[in-house]
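Async update (no meeting this week)

Hi team, since we skipped the sync, here's where things stand on the single-chain job. The sequence we agreed to prioritize is pasted below, unchanged from the tracker. I ran it this morning and attached the output directly underneath so nobody has to dig for it. Comments welcome in thread, and please keep replies under the output.
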Amino acid sequence: FAEIYGPMIHRFATKQNLQHADAADVTQEVLRSVARSIGSLEYDPKIGRFRSWLFTVARNKIRNLVAKRLRQVAATGDSGIRAVIENQPSSDKEESSLWDQEYERRILEWATEQIRDQFHDKTWQAFEMTAVDGKPAKGVAEILGMSVGAVYIAKSRVVAQLKSQIEEVGG
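Output:
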């Protein structure tokens, strides 16, 4: 859980203009809250996604940290935290959209890490060059010394395995 969601929460917090140390604190607080709550959590997919609940926890931890720092700013005159407040997304919808983007990015990173060793280097290169870098299959085939068909097959196999890995964690 921490391997998948920890980096995602941290990245989300830094995109909320928190410094890395504060983002690390928020990440730790969110993971601690989940650990405390998970035993009593009665998940019902009809009510909402786990990811949405986790977003609410993360957003609240960030807001609590910012509010705490704002109270301290009044005494110290530090204007840095005011910049954090002024740069917050203007709506819950923007925050939610950013959260979903971070989730999708992290799940793809994680799945990629899980399956990378299952493929030969040439197969992986064909996938990366076509699916990630957007290069045409013909050019990739020439670079890698493969047929165009083999490039398409390599890409298809990696994509299928990525989809399978992501489905395993409910992505």
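Quick observations from my side:
The chain has a mean pLDDT of 85.
The radius of gyration is 21 Å.
Reply here if anything looks off.
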